[in-house]
Sequence to fold (146 residues):
Amino acid sequence: MYQPCSHLPPQEVQDAIAMHAVEGYPQEVCGAWSLQEDGSWKVHRWTNTLPPKQAHHRFVADPLEVLSLLKAEDQGSLSLEGFYHSHPDAPPFLSNEDLRQFLHHQRPLYPKQALLVVGVKPQGRITWGIYRWLPSTPLAHDRKPR
Ligand SMILES: [Zn+2]
Fold:
């Protein structure tokens, strides 16, 4: 399942994503970040294809933009580190809608990448939520006592 984690991307990536989220407010913005071959970080802004009214609380990334990034990773020219989107006027939790987008039959479409959610409030106040996929571990009561 997706678990909250405390490991945010590097500051320059956070700054670029925060700027995107604030510029896009009150619509949801979306994108990804990657590590380039030369060791530099890059933030890729995707287009939220929904009309403005729907885009306040949902996003659908332009599939061609997504595809071109997945292709670049396939070719080894970058390492895709995570996906982000914003929650205007809402806390940075993974919503059921988010899980529907990133899971297929309860399995993650992108198990290696982090999911970053950016809560945005008026005046550009930002809160972060970052989640990583952890394969399910046995529950505590399944373990033998020592
Ligand atoms: Zn969301």
User: Anything to note?
Assistant: The mean pLDDT is 92.
